[in-house]
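// run 5 | inverse folding | seed 20
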């Protein structure tokens, strides 16, 4: 047999063996959302997603300016479609009392992202995570409203923060009325509002 052919058979055999080993091992890894994966898996996933966003997001900026009326309607948009998971205050404390992996990020940690990157990720969502894509059922303007609320969160006035605290508090009360008290006097969203 010629050497080149032998080389190809050995290479394909090796690849098939690696693939077969992966198929045997991977279903035995803990894929639970309540457990954190290892460092290598986290680094690879973050690298891929972050670069996918940077490469594809483009350079658009938010066409909506931060007027009082726009901020009010941005808050409504975020409250309706995002607060379930992210918390109205962006703290990541979710209404579902559930653990997520990848975890829900603190919105304030995303302020270094460009408007275009925020728009892109909200429009498309992230496959194999709980982050849904909104573009098929929401207008671009609605998505820009969510971006506006993301940008507004670090600038909340003390009065706005107080209102949000009340809103979160009354949600916990309403929840306890239907579900009974939460174990150990837990509050619906324990994370404190972003400073
Ligand atoms: C069902 C839960 C859920 C809903 C609803 C949701 N998100 Fe998310 N979001 C997530 C999770 C989980 C992540 C983390 C994904 C990751 O790290 O791969 C995330 C990530 C993000 C990110 C950052 C992307 C990243 O890679 O960390 C932004 C920005 C974001 N969400 C904004 C929003 C906005 C705005 C809305 C509403 C229009 C929204 N999300 C609705 C669960 C949700």
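// decoded
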């Amino acid at each position: 047999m010629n050497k080149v052919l032998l080389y190809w058979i050995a290479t394909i055999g090796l690849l098939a063996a690696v693939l077969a080993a992966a198929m045997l091992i991977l279903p035995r890894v803990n894929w639970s959302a309540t457990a954190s994966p290892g460092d290598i898996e986290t680094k690879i996933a973050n690298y891929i997603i972050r670069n996918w966003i940077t490469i594809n997001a483009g350079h658009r900026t938010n066409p909506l300016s931060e007027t009082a009326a726009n901020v009010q309607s941005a808050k409504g948009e975020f409250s309706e479609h995002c607060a379930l998971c992210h918390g109205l205050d962006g703290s990541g404390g979710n209404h579902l009392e559930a653990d997520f992996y990848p975890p829900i990020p603190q919105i304030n940690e995303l302020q270094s992202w460009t408007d275009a990157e925020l728009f892109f990720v909200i429009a498309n969502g992230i496959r194999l995570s709980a982050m849904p894509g909104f573009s098929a059922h929401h207008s671009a303007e609605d998505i820009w409203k969510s971006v506006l609320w993301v940008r507004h969160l670090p600038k909340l006035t003390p009065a706005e923060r107080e209102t949000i605290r009340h809103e979160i508090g009354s949600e916990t009360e309403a929840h306890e009325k239907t579900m009974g008290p939460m174990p150990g006097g837990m509050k619906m969203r324990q994370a404190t509002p972003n400073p």
